[in-house]
Automatic annotation (TrEMBL):
Composition-biased stretches (Pro residues): 42-57
The name this protein goes by in its record: FAS1 domain-containing protein
Reported function: May be a cell surface adhesion protein.
Compartment(s) where it occurs, according to its Swiss-Prot or TrEMBL record: Cell membrane
Regions that span the bilayer: 272-291
The keyword Transmembrane is assigned to this record: yes
GO terms for biological process, alphabetical: plant-type secondary cell wall biogenesis
Region (Disordered): 33-59, 238-258
Keyword Metal-binding: no
SUPFAM superfamilies: FAS1 domain
């Protein structure tokens, strides 16, 4: 009887124990999703929520501020060419010659020569030298003459003061020509003094305005006036006349008869008559004497 009462209790005990174990091993129920509302959704419990503002501060030291990226410039080239106008303006007392350079556009030609690595020497008269000209001389020149006047003050080569001592006269100028009626100059030195002769004026170098290995600028005390402006050029030599062909004598055949000079032809009849007449007279006289 006791065995029959214990058996149901043991069966119930094992059933509860087994059910408890099953509940312990079952997974936890997933939480229900929250109902949608205007409030922002909360993050899952496993992830800590971050505040909306302000942004999180960075504990590490700030990165250094870099300068803006600039394209690398090319390596600097050779120094710029000398500016003749600026050089003369800085020297002073050259305003008249500067105006001539500008109105004749010769300053552009000078720049072009220097750009092409040509060497030049310039003689620049002072403003006082232009004032010493006869009144109206400069204004009487045409634009072409003014351009030639500027070129007459430029040599197409570089001359230092010492190189003037070995200059070969006549010296050609940028105006061209070396004959007496064109645009040459003669340069003479006496120690350190340099004199320039044009055939019209005799000028002297007074100072050095600028010099380097390519350009030399000297100031002169007179305006260099070319001889061509005041003396008419020599006329060109006449061309030799072509030789005239000899006319043939129609009364003779030039292929078989030798032409006798006119003087000899005119004397021949007189000689013939002078010999024949006396001979005939002598012959008849002899015959007459013999027969008698």
């Amino acid at each position: 009887m006791n065995f029959n009462l214990v058996s149901p209790f043991l069966f119930l005990f094992f059933f509860l124990l087994q059910f408890t174990c099953i509940l312990a091993q079952a997974p936890a129920m997933a939480p229900m999703p929250p109902t949608q509302s205007s409030a922002p959704a909360s993050l899952p419990p496993s992830q800590p929520s971050a505040p909306a503002s302000p942004p999180p501060t960075i504990s590490s030291s700030p990165a250094p501020i870099l300068s803006p990226v600039v394209a690398s410039a090319p390596a600097p080239g050779p120094p710029g060419l000398p500016n003749v106008i600026k050089i003369l303006a800085k020297a002073g007392s050259c305003s008249t010659f500067i105006k001539l350079l500008q109105i004749t556009h010769e300053v552009g030609e000078i720049t072009s020569l220097l750009n092409n690595s040509n060497s030049i020497t310039m003689f620049v008269p002072s403003d006082g030298a232009f004032l010493n000209l006869k009144t109206g001389t400069l204004n009487s020149f045409s634009d072409q003459r003014k351009a030639e006047l500027v070129k007459f003050h430029i040599l197409p080569s570089y001359f230092s003061l010492s190189q003037f001592q070995t200059a070969s006269n006549p010296v050609q100028t940028q105006a061209g020509g070396t004959t007496n009626r064109e645009f040459p100059i003669n340069i003479a030195t006496n120690g350190t003094a340099v004199n320039i002769t044009t055939g019209i004026v005799n000028a002297s170098l007074t100072s050095t305005i600028y010099t380097d290995s390519q350009l030399a600028i000297y100031q002169v005390d007179k305006v260099l006036l070319p001889l061509k402006f005041f003396v008419k050029p020599l006329p060109p030599a006449p061309a030799p006349e072509p030789s005239k062909p000899k006319k043939d004598d129609p009364s003779s055949d030039s292929s078989s008869v030798n032409v006798v000079p006119s003087g000899a032809t005119s004397l021949f009849p007189h000689t013939f008559h002078g010999m024949v007449y006396p001979g005939c007279f002598f012959f008849f006289s002899v015959c007459f004497v013999y027969m008698s």
